[in-house]
Structure formats: structure tokens, C-alpha cells
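Re: export button greyed out
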Amino acid sequence: MGFRELINIAWQGILSNKLRSSLTVLGIVIGIASVITLMGIGEGAKKEAEKQVQSLGVNLIYVRPGAASTASISQGQGTAPTLTYEDAKAIKDTCPSVDEVAAQYQSSFQVQHGEYNTSTTVLGTEPAYPEVRNFHPARGRFFTADDMKDATRVCAIGDTVREDLFPDESAIGKQILIRGELFQVIGVMEKKGANQMTDMDDQIFIPITTGYSTLFGLNTVTGQAVKMVLARAKDGQDLQAQFQITNLLRLRHGIKSPDQDDFQIRTQMDIMQTAQSITGVFSLLLGATAGISLVVGGIGIMNIMLVSVTERTREIGIRKAIGAKFGDILWQFVLEAIILSVTGGLLGIALGMLGSDWIGRFANWTCIVTPYSVILAFAVSFGIGLFFGIYPARKAALLDPIVALRTE
Amino acid sequence: MPNNVVELHDISRVYEMGEEPLYALKQLTLSIEDGDYVAIMGTSGSGKSTLMNLIGCLDRPTEGRYLLNHKDVFHLSDDELAAIRNTTIGFVFQQFNLLSSMTAIENVMLPLVYAGVDKEQRTIRAQFALQQVGLEQRMYHRPTQLSGGQQQRVSIARAIVNKPRILLADEPTGALDSHTAEEIMALFDDLVEQGITVILVTHDGEVANRASRIVRMRDGQITSDSRIRSKNEK
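Workaround output, generated via the alternate export path:
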């Protein structure tokens, strides 16, 4: 007996009770649609996170001093003053895979302009900072190499700081007081928002050299300490750059074995991976939640197939009496279940895509339906039909024709 | 030497009902010649339906030997028995047993579907079978749109569409009025004339008298077996 004949018989079975078949299909439609939509939301979250990490700057390598320990108690990464401005300069001068370097040292100060004042982070850094961080002035300019050399008292301020100090006038060219020291505002940064670590807009940027001479002071042991060196690797050379920096710093700090490292290196890749693993779990949880509704839909199919087998006992008896084999009856019902669930699957995929589109449009949330989730949903709906259809179908195929024929 | 299409030797069919085994058939022996027209009579519970089911390969004997067309069917698998039902045996039931969701011609085609006949052939053969029972005008009606007699004609067409050797009819006129019953019986006469072995189960003496041979049963055994006319005599 041909496959097309079997499909045909199964299809007739479905058509013989349209309302019931539609309701059964609906269960799968809802299940698959929620899987598609929720996986889309998860995927959107992943893309969003990637975008945020990307916005910190690409190919970035973060070098931070190691942990200081006081009487064997570690005080956490970045507390030891082991990384210096000289290190940053060496990285820039000697590591061939490193493109740009911006050392930074930051501290919190009270700043004031006229009657307005606020407490904010003052970040001493280098002219390459906007380029490396992918964070540029919206108005005015950032400081230059000349400002660095002369240690001029200029600053670029973040948008939040501008709002706090200059609520109703232009900031460019004005003087502000940072811990009583006079600085001239030469630029206002673009709005960036907060990333995982800091509110990028609530900062004031000054030349790091000016910082050392006016605000930060010098560390008595190491001289000009930095809290972080941002290095940008040349395209595709992240690993080489990381390797070169590590070797250079070990050499400069006289470190003989890796477990004595007094610095820590993280790449954009590490951060990206962390973000991805978090959003991956998020996606999985969403998918699993939707999966439960799919299982419920599958049980619905099994339930209906069992009812159908019971109701059509006599039909099964007749079919067997006139020569239907075990496999003929089995496939008739299995295919019925598969057709129901696959139809539900296809409609569910369509509905899920529509739903994702709406969420994207009206809830302002990136919702991405990947081909992978579509294929998965289709395969799952097929599997559900097979899995939940086989038990009722077997029951039907094993019916004794005499008993079945006697049933009313 | 007669050509026996059905040979039953010491057949028993036992149902395990609680403590006591229940003998539906008790060491029954029966041979039926090819092309014969046999009526099996008996009261309800006499075992005649069990006998029908055994001959029709819907059931297996507990003991004994059953040669169908000289072939022992005892050890055949369920699927092999299904194939025999499909090609060698046609069933006609008292309650017609048509599938209500299908038209007359679709019902008649069903055995051919399971026999693996292609659609074109199926249509031709089903049309021919429906013509034989005089229903060519009603091919695309559903069973609910047909009278009892017409439904029984459809089921006869379904039984003969695959050219079986044996036609088994279980009280084929039981649900019909006497006039319609007469028409159905005339159809059976035609089929016998065409060489099909017809075995019918009935408790109606008038119906049984149309046959050439009457087998009476009681308590799972044959009580009398009489030939009332020679095999091919009208």
C-alpha cells in the first residue's frame, strides 16, 4: 500500500471531524507560536547584549593591576598600584599588534560651576580614549597630544554632568572647579548611557598628565599609577596583542611564573562570552517555558487520538475484515496525528513570526526569529505527532477485528 | 474427487471464561466444495458465528486443522490472514458495515486500496462491481443517502470487488424487509452462478432453502447436514 494512499486515508479521518481536529491543532499552534516568539525574544536579548558590548569599543583589551594584599587578605582586582603610566606607554610603543592605547586613572570629586555643584567621576586619560572607547564629543573637542604635553587644565564633560552644571546655558568655554582647581570645558560628550560597569555620561575627562599634577597626586612607590589601560588590538590580532602585552608586562615587572602576575587582562571577547552565556540561559529558560505548552499540546493530540480510536473501533474492524494489515491501521492513525501536529506546527510558526514582528514593533523590543528556531519548531511538531500518536495508533492496530466489528 | 475450498478437521474453539472453559465449537468437521451454496443454520449461541469467523480467517481455532484452498492457515501471521481476507474472502454483514464518511464507490474501492491496486484500476473495478449489484446510478451517494437494500448491495459489491473465491454472508437479510430480502437473495444466486462459493449464516428457513446445502448446528456441533439440490441445479 502506497504512502500517498495512507496519507489520503489519514486525511479523510481528519476531515471526518473538522471541529475536533481544529481544536487539537490549536493546542499545537499555541505551543509552537510561543516557542517561536519566546525564542525570538531571547535571541533579541542576545543581540541587544552583543550590541551593548560592541558599543564599548571593538577589539578592546582591558589591562588592570592585580589585587593588593594586606596581611594576606586580598583586596580585589585593581587595588594594587602596580600598573603605571610608563607601562601604558611601553605597550603602545612595543606591542606591534596593539593599535591604540588609552591609560586611565579615575577618582571621585566634587565639581562646581556657579551655584551648581555635583559629585562625579573624574577620569584622567589620553587623547586616544574617544577612538578606543568609541565615545566621541558631541560638541566642542576632546583634548589633544599638546594638551597632554603641557598638562593644560581642560576637560570634556559627560552629558549628565552638563545637565547638572549647565542646566540652561552652553558649557563650552566655561570654567568649572574640580576640588577647587579651575578647568576649562572644551567639549561635551555624546550621550552613551550606562554599560555594565559605569554610567558613561556621569564623568569628566581630563588629560591624565594634568590629573597627576593637580588632582590625583603621585604614588610614592610606583610613581604615576593607572587604574586601567585600554588597548585596542589591530583587526583580527586580539590574541597576539593579549600575548604581547602579557609578555611585556611580565618582563617589565620581573615576573617569572604566571601565578605571580600582578595584572589582569580581559578582552572584549571574554566580556562578550559572559554576556552571551547569560542571555543563552535566558533564551533556554524562555524556550523551556514554551516547551511545556508544547507538551500539553502533544498530550491533547494523544487524548484526541485515543478518543478517535475508541469512536472508530467499528471502522477499524471493518477495515481489518476487508484486509487492512497491522501496519496499515498503525500508519493511518500515526499519520493522522503527525498531520495534525505538523499543520499546527506550520500555523504556529506563522503566528509566532507575526507575534515576534508585533512585539518588535509595538513593545520596542528586538525580537529575532532565527531559521534555527523555525527548523527546531517544525521538527518538534513532527516529533510530537509521532510520539503522541504512536500509542493510540498501536492500540487501534492491535484491535481484534471480531471484537471491533461487534462494537456499536 | 470433489475440490474442497474449505476443509475443517476436528475444529474446536474454546473461550476461557473464568473457571470453566467454554466450547464455542467442539471437534467440528466440515468440508465445502468449490462453487457450492451453503446455508448454516442454528439458534443464537449455536456457534454458527464463531464458525463464520474461523472460515473467514478473522479468528483462529484453538485446536484442529483448517485448510483453505488446500492450504493450512493455522500458522499464518495476522498480516498473512489479512491478505487472505483481502483477496480470497468477501464479507457481507447483517449491519452492512459501510464507512459512513465515504461514498458508495469509495467503500467498494477500499479492499482494492489495501490490495495495492492503483486508482484507475480501482475505479474501473469498483464501477463494474456496483453495476453487477445494480447500483450504477448511486455510486456517489453516501450510505446515509441509501436505503437498507441499497446499502446491502454496496456491501456485496465491496465483497466481490476483489474477485474472492468465497463469499461469507452473516444474516445478510436480517435487517431488510421481505421484498428487499428477495432482491438480495437473487443477487446471491447470480454470484453462485458465476462460480463464487457462497456461505451464508441465517436462522431464516426460507432464506436457507435458497441454498443447495443446509448445515444445522447446535452447541458448537453439526446436528444435520443435508443437500437439498445438487451443486449447480437451479
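The first strand of chain A starts at residue 60 and ends at 65. The button fix ships in the next patch.
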